[in-house]
C-alpha cells in the first residue's frame, strides 16, 4: 500500500455516491452483456445434465467462499475508519482461510460427488476450488478500492478480470475441455483481477496509518457477517440442492439455468447499489443522521423500482429471451423463468434492506430477517417435496424473500427509519408498472418463436412506457432521481413537470437531504 500519512479515506457525499453508482452501473452493464454472451455460447455447447453437475459444484464452492472471504469485504466496506494495518490484517486472514478451503475442496471432492450421485462433479469441484488461492485477497483489495472512493479503478480491474475468465472458459470449451471450461472461468477471473490491482501502482489505494491490527481481531466482526451470509446462501441454494436429489442432473441444469439467467441482473444491481449506498449510509450513521433522515428510504425506493419494474418486465420477456440465448432443448428452463425472476427480484429487495440493517448495526434485525427467509423457504421446499413439483420448488425462494422483507418493513417502522405505509405505496406503484410491462410482453409474445416473441413483446410494452412517461411525476423513483440531480434537462433546471402525491413528498425530502449532505 502507498504511504501517505496525511491522507485519509474521503468523505462520502451525495455527489460521490451518485458518481460511484454511475461507475458501478456502467461496469455492471458491460459485465452483464459479457455474461449473457457467455450464457448463449455455453447453452449451445454444454448439455443440461453437465450444467446441472456444474451448478451444484458451484453452490458448494460458494458455500465455502463465505468461509474463505469470512465477511471481510463487507467489513472493509462498512468500517468507520479504514487504515493500512486493518486492510493488511484482512488480507492475511483471507489468504489463510482461502488456503484452508482449497485443501478441504481437494480432499472432499469425491465424497461430495458421491453425495449427489454425480461422479462427474469431482473434477469440476477441484478446478473451481483453485480460486480460493487468489479470490480472498482480490476481494479485500477491490473492497478497499471501493471504500476509498476508487470506484473507477475497482470497476475496471474487476471487469478486466471477468472478461479474461470468460475468455479462458470459452477457449477451453472450444478445445474440448467440456464442461471443465466452465469451472476454469472463475479461478482465471480472480487471478487476473488480483494481478491487475497488485502490479499497477496507480491502482493501489491510499490509506492512513493506524494502530496495529492482528488478523485474529477480525475473526469476530467478519465471522459475524459471514454467518449471516451463510444463512442467506442456504435459503437461495437449497432449491438447487433439492432439485439435484429429486429430479436428477437434467432438471437441475434447467432450473439452475433459469435461476442463473435472472440471478445475473439481480446480482449486478445489488452490487452496484451496495457499493454506492453502503459508504453513504455508514457516514450518515457515524454522524447520527441515519434515523430521522431519508437515506434509508432512498435505498428502498431504488431497490423497489429495480425489483417490481425491472423483474416484473423480466417475468414477461424473460422466457423468450432465455429461449433465444440457449437455443432448443431448454424448454423447461424457459418455463421456469417467471417464477425464478420473481424470486430473484424479491431477493434483491430483501438483500438491499439488509444493507440498511447491517450498516446501522442492527444485528438482531438481520438475524430475524434471515431466519424468517430461511424458515419460509424451507416450508415451501417441504411442500414441493411432498408434491414432487419443480414449479413449487422454484416458487419457494420468492415466498421466503417476501416474508423476510415484510419483517424488515416492520423493523424499520419501529426504528423510525421508514414508515410501512410509505414503503408499501412505493412498492404498489412500482409493482403496477412492472406488472403492466410483464403482462404486455407475455401477451405480445404468446405462441411465437423466441425472436419474434421478443420483438412483439417489446412493441406491446411501448404503450405502458408511454403512460409511465406521461404520469412520471407520480413514480417514486423518478421523484427521488429528479430531486437528487440525476435527471436534468440540457438547459439546467431539473427535468419534468411539478411532482404531486407520493412523488412530491419524496422529491421534497430528497431535495432537502441533498442540500444537507452537500452543506456538510
From TrEMBL:
Its main location: membrane. This is Polysaccharide biosynthesis protein. It holds the Pfam family Polysacc_synt_3. Keywords: Cell membrane, Membrane, Transmembrane, Transmembrane helix. The keyword Transmembrane applies. Belongs to the polysaccharide synthase family. It is a multi-pass membrane protein. GO terms for cellular component: plasma membrane. The lineage of its organism: Bacteria, Bacillati, Actinomycetota, Actinomycetes, Kitasatosporales. The chain crosses the membrane at residues 21-41, 53-77, 89-112, 124-145, 298-326, 332-350, 362-384, 390-412, 424-445, 451-471. The keyword Transmembrane helix applies. It is found in: Cell membrane.
Amino acid at each position: 500500500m502507498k504511504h501517505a500519512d496525511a491522507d485519509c479515506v474521503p468523505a462520502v457525499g451525495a455527489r460521490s455516491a451518485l458518481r460511484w453508482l454511475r461507475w458501478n452501473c456502467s461496469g455492471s452493464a458491460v459485465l452483464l452483456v459479457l455474461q449473457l454472451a457467455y450464457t448463449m455460447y455455453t447453452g449451445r455447447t454444454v448439455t443440461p445434465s453437465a450444467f446441472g453437475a456444474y451448478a451444484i459444484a458451484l453452490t458448494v464452492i460458494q458455500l465455502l467462499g463465505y468461509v474463505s472471504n469470512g465477511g471481510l469485504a463487507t467489513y472493509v466496506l462498512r468500517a468507520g475508519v479504514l487504515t493500512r494495518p486493518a486492510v493488511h490484517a484482512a488480507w492475511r486472514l483471507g489468504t489463510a482461510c482461502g488456503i484452508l478451503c482449497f485443501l478441504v475442496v481437494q480432499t472432499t471432492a469425491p465424497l461430495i460427488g458421491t453425495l449427489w450421485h454425480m461422479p462427474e462433479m469431482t473434477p469440476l469441484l477441484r478446478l473451481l476450488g483453485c480460486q480460493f488461492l487468489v479470490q480472498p485477497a482480490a476481494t479485500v483489495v477491490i473492497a478497499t478500492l471501493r471504500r476509498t472512493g476508487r470506484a473507477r479503478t475497482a470497476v475496471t480491474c474487476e471487469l478486466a478480470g471477468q472478461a479474461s475468465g470468460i475468455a479462458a472458459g470459452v477457449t477451453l470449451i472450444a478445445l474440448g475441455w467440456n464442461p471443465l471450461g466452465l469451472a476454469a472461468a472463475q479461478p482465471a477471473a480472480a487471478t487476473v483481477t488480483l494481478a491487475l490491482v497488485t502490479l499497477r501502482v496507480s491502482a493501489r489505494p491510499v490509506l492512513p496509518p493506524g494502530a496495529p491490527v492482528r488478523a485474529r481481531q477480525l475473526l469476530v466482526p467478519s465471522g459475524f457477517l459471514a454467518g449471516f451470509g451463510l444463512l442467506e446462501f442456504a435459503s437461495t441454494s437449497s432449491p438447487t440442492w433439492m432439485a439435484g436429489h429429486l429430479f436428477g442432473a437434467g432438471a437441475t441444469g434447467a432450473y439452475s439455468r433459469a435461476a442463473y439467467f435472472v440471478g445475473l441482473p439481480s446480482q449486478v444491481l445489488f452490487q452496484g447499489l451496495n457499493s454506492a449506498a453502503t459508504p453513504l449510509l455508514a457516514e450518515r450513521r457515524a454522524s447520527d443522521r441515519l434515523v430521522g433522515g431519508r437515506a434509508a428510504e432512498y435505498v428502498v425506493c431504488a431497490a423497489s423500482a429495480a425489483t417490481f419494474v425491472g423483474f416484473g418486465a423480466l417475468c414477461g420477456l424473460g422466457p423468450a429471451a432465455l429461449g433465444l440465448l440457449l437455443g432448443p432443448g431448454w424448454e423447461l428452463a424457459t418455463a421456469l423463468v417467471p417464477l425464478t425472476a420473481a424470486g430473484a427480484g424479491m431477493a434483491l429487495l430483501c438483500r438491499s434492506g439488509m444493507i440498511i440493517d447491517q450498516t446501522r448495526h442492527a444485528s438482531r434485525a438481520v438475524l430475524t430477517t434471515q431466519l424468517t427467509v430461511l424458515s419460509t423457504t424451507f416450508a415451501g421446499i417441504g411442500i414441493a417435496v411432498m408434491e414432487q413439483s419443480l414449479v413449487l420448488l422454484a416458487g419457494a425462494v420468492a415466498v421466503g424473500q417476501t416474508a423476510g422483507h415484510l419483517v424488515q418493513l416492520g423493523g424499520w417502522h419501529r426504528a423510525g427509519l421508514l414508515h410501512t405505509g410509505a414503503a408499501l405505496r412505493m412498492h404498489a406503484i412500482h409493482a403496477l408498472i412492472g406488472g403492466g410491462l410483464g403482462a404486455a410482453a407475455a401477451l405480445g409474445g404468446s405462441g411465437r418463436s423466441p425472436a419474434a416473441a421478443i420483438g412483439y413483446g417489446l412493441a406491446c410494452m411501448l404503450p405502458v412506457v408511454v403512460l409511465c412517461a406521461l404520469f412520471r411525476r407520480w413514480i417514486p423513483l423518478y421523484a427521488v432521481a429528479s430531486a437528487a440531480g440525476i435527471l436534468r434537462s440540457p438547459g439546467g433546471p431539473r427535468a419534468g413537470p411539478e411532482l404531486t402525491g407520493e412523488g412530491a413528498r419524496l422529491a421534497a425530502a430528497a431535495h432537502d437531504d441533498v442540500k444537507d449532505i452537500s452543506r456538510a
